[in-house]
């Protein structure tokens, strides 16, 4: 049973959004080709879904500046611009993404005082989103992961899939993903590779 996980392909992380990833919209046509390929038994997507005033927002902390390290619930936390607020256009999946073909949209980041990069659980690892249970119930044995951003939500989703679903085979689709910084992307890819995640491109997936 093969599944595709599309991580946070939302307006907020594309050009014109509140937290744009460079060339974030370029993943959409690649993701659509993967969706249409017939290679997957199941297609799921994650959606950042923050309440207003979320604790990861710099605006929620006096004198904090976006993209500096701060603290949230006693742990180090990157301070982000307000983004992907529930019910806003910024939080919607990219309009050109073939979302009608997605079997499940897993929302995350709803707890006001804990961030959630991974599609599988909060950053403190105490609260699961339920996605791993869903995939296991469906009998998923192979999971391909891609989306936005490689150096944050994609990486943590891929690593958590490995940890929370013993025996699953995980691949990262590089050209269907974009990251915030080149250095961050390179480090994320090396970390994923070191944990046994295969690094592939969409051409290999489509040809396989």
Can you give keywords for this protein?
single chain, 208 residues, alpha/beta, two-stranded antiparallel ribbon, 19% strand, globular, Isochorismatase-like_sf, hydrolase, EC 3.5.1.19
What layout of secondary structure does this protein have?
Blueprint: E1 2-7, H1 27-36, E2 42-48, E3 69-72, E4 75-78, E5 104-108, H2 131-137, E6 142-147, H3 150-164, E7 169-173, H4 182-194, E8 198-200, H5 202-207
Parallel strand pairs: 1-2, 1-6, 2-5, 6-7, 7-8
Antiparallel strand pairs: 3-4
Helix pairs in contact: 3-4
Descriptive notes:
The protein is built from five helices and eight strands. With 208 residues, it is an alpha/beta fold. It has a six-stranded parallel β-sheet, sandwiched between helices. Strand 7, helix 4 and strand 8 form a beta-alpha-beta unit. The chain starts with a strand and ends with a helix. The model has no long low-confidence stretch (mean pLDDT 97). GO terms for molecular function: nicotinamidase activity. Pfam families: Isochorismatase. Pathway: Cofactor biosynthesis; nicotinate biosynthesis; nicotinate from nicotinamide: step 1/1. Residues 3-203 form the Isochorismatase-like domain.
